[in-house]
Amino acid sequence: MTVLLALALGYTGLTCLALGMKRHHQELLGRKPTEARLRLFKAAGWLLILATTAACLMLWPLGLALSMVPILVTLVGLPLIFLLPYRPALARHLAWALPLVAGGLAVGGLG
Amino acid sequence: MNGSLRQSMAWLHTWSGLLLGWLLVAVFVTGTSAYYREEISLWMEPELHQSVRSDDTVDLAWQTLGRIAADARSWDISLPDARNPAVQLRWQPAGEEQPRQGGGRNRGEQVWMDAGSGEVLTPRETRGGHFLYRFHFELYGVPRLWARWLICIATMFMLVAIISGVITHKKLFKDFFTFRPGKGQRSWLDAHNASAVLALPFHFMITYSGLLLFMVMLMPWGIDAAYDGDRRAFFDEAFPRSTETPGPAGGPADMVAIGPLAAATAARFERPVSRIEVQHPNRENARIRISVEQDVTISGRRRGGSPTQVFQGSSGGLLETIEPREAPAPLMGKVYNVMTNLHLVRFADPVVRLLFFFSGLAGSAMVATGMLLWVSKRTQQLRRQQPGAALKLVNGLNMASITGLLAAIGAYFAANRLLPPALAERSSWEIRVFFLVWLASLVHGLLRPHRRGWIEQLAVITVLWLALPFVDMATTNSHLFSAAAWRLGALAGFDLICLLLGALWGYTLWRVAKPKQDKRKPARAREPALAEGNA
């Protein structure tokens, strides 16, 4: 488990949470979402934040891990906020590409 | 009722934020730099950079102390670690111990030694990263207690600003992915919200734990009541330390060689030796304490408990083995340790340190955007009128506290390289350069028109920070293209962070200097709920 993977999971989680909001959903995917889809994205987002928490718990001892979760989420959230208006397509693609790359690096033992 | 509560909170947020914002930016920026204070200090002492630890380092330190401090009362050798390549040798000279000015133990004499050659090194005189670190909670040139109180009051207002801010921006959590670029005040508001809300846990943690570090100064009454005003008794009970008072020195005697003892301790704990302390060196009753590095845990205490072996100096016989352990602490003690360790980032993990550093930058940006928002809102209300003296004053102070401080820090680093090494009071001159540049930026900010002033100051900090690695290249042998910089990591990292930050200031300059397209488009009142009561 690497820090990069934890960061990537946090980024995807936050992007899912943004997709769970009507306005951002429309900005990112260009169509009106149904209530069910919004709920689905919200659930996925929170699950990924949970996964980030799990990753932190594997990386650090309890006290530090719980403190690091909000810090990791902050650090990936800030770029996301600025990507959304300027490069929405990039923001969307990063959401699936980052965990893949970080996961690949972790499996390859490089990250 | 709700409306008036939010209005009063908005008022509180605006004015507490503005008045203490100037101080808080400085606290945040210098505090963020303090995560790397050891690395900054190392960068600022290039004379130490060529030192490399070898198998002989311990013996060399032993011989050097035997030569320069043979009759000392005690020796203390700090061996190189990941953050420092040179050996620090300290000793208490013979004779009665002189108490340090202002209380506390006298730290005695100290020199640096090259870990590879045993040569005594004399680094240029500098306060290094400790100046910035101290500045973030004690300022400079102000009586220490006053400065600490001032910072603590500002920190309490920061907590007030955080809480009142959350109440003010009711839609904060709904809108926190929102950034609307190119819309003047609205964009500043979004940036302020985004950096504030996302990083809220970090801001809360760093502010609260900062106050906790000063709890005894801020709220002494509980302790005074429980301990009858005897604070020393409280400290002894809450933060016990081993007090080992050595007896009088015995007659002269030779000591055994240190090499095999150090090797034995390193093998016993399977870690390199980090510290060697000797009581009564070269005496019959010499005692040698050899310690290895200790894992710093987040709930643990700073000192004590590192794995140690104690030897008799004259025979080399093993007296005691102290196993690694975590000092037992009551639950509240553990909570205090976790909070304060989070503030100080004592647990040495480079990745965590970097993540905290970036969080600190985000915190600085949050305070700075709030202050810019104040000016932006009032500039838009002017509608082509000339700005009044108050607005000019606030803007000038904003400039000094943001770009001015960055110019001062950059100049402090540059002065370290460019001032002649033998200059008298060299470390004071570095600090004078820091404050002179800061003052100059304030004067400049007050005199120049609004936008021109920002552009000029941004240009200065861009050039200054981008130039730092090149100044380093011209004046040292441990620059970005040298083996030493990459062997130590911290040195290469310092130059790379300078380049990165310089590029960031350059990008900001480019954005600010670019002519605006929708200059006179009124950006107000489209979403009144969000704009209401802000700034």
Written overview of the protein:
- The complex is a heterodimer of chains A (111) and B (535).
- Chain A is mostly helical.
- In chain A, helix 1 (3-19) packs antiparallel against helix 3 (35-59), helix 1 packs antiparallel against helix 5 (88-108) and helix 4 packs antiparallel against helix 5.
- The mean pLDDT of chain A is 88.
- Chain A has one domain.
- Chain A contains 5 helices and no strands.
- Helix content of chain A is 86%, strand content 0%.
- With 535 residues, chain B is an alpha+beta fold.
- Chain B has 3 domains: 1-45 and 126-238 and 348-385, no CATH class; 51-96 and 105-123 and 241-322, no CATH class; 388-516, no CATH class.
- Chain B has helices at residues 2-34, 37-43, 57-68, 129-138, 144-168, 185-198, 200-213, 215-218, 221-226, 231-238, 258-269, 331-344, 350-382, 389-418, 426-447, 450-475, 483-488, 490-513, 528-531, and strands at 74-78, 87-92, 109-113, 120-121, 273-279, 287-292, 308-312, 318-322.
- An 8-stranded antiparallel β-sheet of chain B has the order 4-3-2-1-5-6-7-8.
- In chain B, a hairpin with a 5-residue loop joins strand 7 (308-312) and strand 8.
- In chain B, helix 1 crosses helix 13.
- Chain B starts with a helix and ends with a helix.
- In chain B, 39% of the residues are buried.
- Chain A binds chain B through residues 3, 14, 17-18, 21, 23-24, 60-61, 63-64, 67-68, 70-75, 77-78, 80-82, 84-86, and chain B through 174, 176-181, 194-195, 198-202, 205, 297-299, 338, 342, 347, 349, 351-352, 355-356, 358-359, 362.
